[in-house]
Amino acid sequence: MGMFERIIADNIFIDFGCEIMYGEDQIYLDYPARFATVQFELMGTSLLCELADHIRKEAGFTPLHPIDEYTEEMCDQDAWYSFYIGLNAWDDTKVDACIEAVVCNSSSADEGEMYTIDLSREEQAAMHNRLDEQCRKYLGKSCEELLAEAGEEMAKGL
After folding, report:
1. Residue 11 above 60 pLDDT?
2. What is the DSSP string of 94-129?
3. Torsion angles phi and psi, residue 124, rounded to 5
4. Predicted local confidence at residue 153, as pLDDT
5. What spatial distance separates the first Cα and last Cα of the chain, rounded to whole Å?
6. Burial, 124: exposed, middle or buried (Cβ in 10 Å; 0-12, 13-18, 19+)?
7. What are phi and psi of 119, to 5 degrees?
8. How many other β-carbons are positioned within 10 Å of the β-carbon of residue 41?
9. Which of 106, 123, 141, 158 has minimal Cβ neighbours within 10 Å of its Cβ?
10. 78: exposed, middle or buried (Cβ count in 10 Å: 0-12, 13-18, 19+)
11. Is residue 43 within 8 Å of 15, Cβ to Cβ?
């Protein structure tokens, strides 16, 4: 197992206490193409929070947790991030190209804003393997089975 596969395996956990969202999206090429999606909320591990804090800091906002020159007293201690990632039937990796981090309960001007933690193609593949492992273990279904269910739901809405 490579380094980022190990990092993903140690730091990515689906929050099965939250609802799994089945849906659909579309992309416009020459005409709109619809595809099924499944979105998970992820647990806010220290690594995900640190990545989001660095991105948020680069955008000019105070991080939520102590990093670099920021101490705990300087941070927004009542705020947190909600993290999301999705499966999709469009991309060959079957995983979104980023993890979304939404700022929650902050007194800052970016309350409710979403930041993205971009994933390389290799990281997307490792992410798919991690999500698939957890879905099989806790739901008894693979990621492909969940996407098929989302596709069936999408077809009912036509």
Report:
1. yes
2. -B-SEEEEEEES-SSTTTT-EEEEE--HHHHHHHHH
3. -60, -40
4. 87
5. 43
6. buried
7. -120, 135
8. 19
9. 158
10. exposed
11. yes
For 77, residues 6+ apart whose C-beta sits below 8 A from its C-beta are 64
Structure token pair of residue 126: 């490792």
Contact 126, 133 (CB under 8 A): no
Contacts of 139 (CB under 8 A, 6+ apart): 16, 146
As a whole number of angstroms, the longest Cα–Cα distance in the chain is 53
Amino acid identity for residue 84 in this structure: Y
Contact indicator for 119, 127 with CB cutoff of 8 Å: yes
Lookup: tokens for 129: 């393997």
**pLDDT cut 70: percent of the chain above it:** 94
Lookup: tokens for 137: 């273990």
pLDDT per residue over 96-135, tens digit each?
A: 999 999 999 999 999 999 999 999 999 999 999 999 999 9
